[in-house]
Amino acid sequence: MLYSKIEGEGKPFVIMHGFLGMSDNWKTLAGQYVEAGFQVHILDLRNHGRSFHSDEWSYEAMVQDVYEYCQANNLTRIDMLGHSMGGKVAMLFATTHPEIVDKLIVADIGPKFYKQHHQDILAGLNAVDFSVKPSRNDVEEIVSQYVSDFGTRQFLLKNLYWKEPGQLAFRFNLNAFNNNLDAIGKPLADGLVFNKPTLFLRGGNSGYIQDSDLEAIRQHFPNLQLETIPNAGHWLHAENPKMFFEMTTTFLKE
């Protein structure tokens, strides 16, 4: 069963992180959604955070995990939010289990195919040799040789934890990612449609959702709203959390 944090009372609202992320990334916003009257479920998807590791890593497998999570927690009518990879999971879940999802929010990702672009990040993560028992500073120094952006490095290094005294490790399953790297860019299959209200949010400085993508998105999500958060990139929920919260809650309460 997936690891989750459940807070609040009200309409169940399931939130899913992006690639190499975890539920902790959404802790602050989750608290705000609780105050807005939702029962919030922030998940760690398989091979991420505190959830189980598996050699199988695909959107179909992740959707099945989320379905089993909903079944186990008696979640029969939910709202759902996914960012990046989590957004791809959310899109596939909503189109294959539309009876469960009332409203869908997809943050800075589309249903199209995305070419692999995480090579530098994965090279940096793979360069860390935990057998020599590096310190946190050692790990950051190694990763910084591959990932120059400070914010991205801090996001990645949130996954460090003490596996045992003196022994750091990553929470995510790096081997599964190395062996299934093409899985993350996979498009939503033709013919899958979710007719209920759907909000796509994109960062004004992000290139993940282009104006030219709208027609293809609408084929899958005809009841579509698209909003742009200015001065924000791919991590729009972290870069402008106030506007992200306002736009999402307005949509959910409409």
TrEMBL record:
One of its GO terms (molecular function) is hydrolase activity. Keywords: Hydrolase. The keyword Signal does not apply. Residues 11-109, 179-241 form the AB hydrolase-1 domain. It comes from the Bacteria. Gene3D superfamilies: alpha/beta hydrolase (3.40.50.1820). InterPro entries: AB_hydrolase_1 (IPR000073), AB_hydrolase_fold (IPR029058). The keyword Transcription does not apply. PANTHER family: PROTEIN ABHD11. This is Alpha/beta fold hydrolase. It comes from Flavobacterium potami.
